[in-house]
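Field guide to reading this record: the first block holds the primary sequence, the second block holds the structure written as discrete tokens, and the final block holds curator observations. Each block starts with its own label. This record concerns Septation ring formation regulator EzrA, catalogued under organism Geobacillus kaustophilus.

BLOCK 1 — SEQUENCE
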Amino acid sequence: MGMAWIVLLLGAGAIIYNHVYRKRMYREIDRLEEWKINLMNRPVPDELAKVKQLNMTGETEQLFERWRQQWDDIVAVKLPNVEEQLFDAERLLDKYRYRQARRLLGQIADGLRRLEEEVHEIIHEVNELIGSEEQSRAEIEELRAAHREAKKALLAYRYTFGSAADLLDVRLTEAEKQFQRFAELTEAGNYLAARDVVLTLKEELGRLTAMMEEIPKLLGECQTSLPAQLAELADGYREMEERGYILDHLHMERTLQEKREKIEQCLAMIHELRIEEAKQIVAELKEEIDALYDLLENEVLAHQYVQTEMPRLSGMLQELAAEAKETEAEALFVQQSYHLAPSDLEKYRSIEKQLHQLQKRFFLIQDRVAEAKTAYSLLKEELEQLVSQIDLMKEEHEQFRTMLQTLRKDELIAREKLDGMRKTLAEALRLVQKSRLPGLPEPYALELAEARRSLQAVAARLEEKPLDMPAVDQALEEAKAAVERLYERTVEMIEQATLAERTIQYGNRYRRRYPAVRKGLEEAEFLFRHYDYEEALRQAVAAVEEVEPGAFDRVQKLWQEDNSREQ
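BLOCK 2 — STRUCTURE
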């Protein structure tokens, strides 16, 4: 039973699918039919009718014939073929030959697409021809006006174009012939060729108009402005030479001649209407002439610099020499009192050597200024180098002097530090005296002796001649560590002794009742009398805490309160 249902359902499904598919194929036939009718109704005849308004000769006639034949072929042959194919597709569908029908419909769609492009191309070409004829007619009038204006300007202002006027004449006459050519081509119906003539004319007249704007200005530069600047440069150069400037290195006469030749070259280019090249050369010439002005101005500025810097540098070097002498005396004095490292002495000798070299260079420059054979710009360069070297040397010299002063300052600081440590040691001993201890433990006595020895070592280093500051600093570091350690040890020892004494006193209340406490306290007293305050405190605390836990905290608290009252 189930199997029969499945077969039935599958059969029903196949029938439905078959029906839907056929319907879709018929719809596609209708769409292609509509497309074919649409193509047949395109306004190609109307477009071709517009062409007939033009001169139906030459190129236009040939094009019209080609388009008309193409359209006739589409309407009479190609579209009826499509109609035939659509009819075949319908027959195949009726016979349920779907695959063949589908393939045929695909071919029909491709054919219609190609026909669509062909029709589009015909309409586009027709519009291009008509458009180019309209545009050319409008533009040729504008170009005639531009040509007339150019001829008028050339006639009225011929002198402003110099020798370029003849070639401009030739070019404008050549352009005039193109108007005749345009008329002939239009008459012959060759509108597309006529359009090319319009575009060529437009370009040529644009070029000529631009040239006619630029030539007078360029001629002005080459015939008046630039030669005047060269003459001014030549005068300035001669005048400076007469005033004693050394300018041989500028090779000015040869350079000016080169510029004059360049101007001639530029005029020849204008004559040949090579205007862009001429503009380039004029721009270069302007830059080069500016550079020559700058060179002469540099010499004037360099002369001023040399005049003002020479006396200033002479003064600076004298001042440096005097300072170096003072430094030498100071170094000798310091050397007797202090130990100077070999590198420091070497630095001073190098400063001396540099100073002599700088003086020698300055005298050489002085001689060259007096000789008046060297350009001021070159002398200025040498002086600038000398100035930077003098500045460097001043800096080195200053560093050396600072180092000498630092040595003496370091000695004073070292003596101050030694005094401070002596005071710290005296303060530690005063605390010991004030606390009235029965005696000093041996380790403490050894530390005290060590601290005193370290202070004596610093004092001895400070008495040495010459003074070796790195060794003094080393001794100071060691003494500082020893004294600080001793002071801390003193405070700690006094605290332990006082707390031991107070804990023993506090524990006395338990002596009679507790033999163990008595024994512990007696031992603590024995240790106290033998200066072992740390162990005495430990024993006393252990004995008292045995019978009264927390007793040591109370003793400590009372002692801290007494201390704060005393302070």
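BLOCK 3 — OBSERVATIONS
DSSP finds 15 helices and no strands in the chain.
The mean pLDDT is 79.
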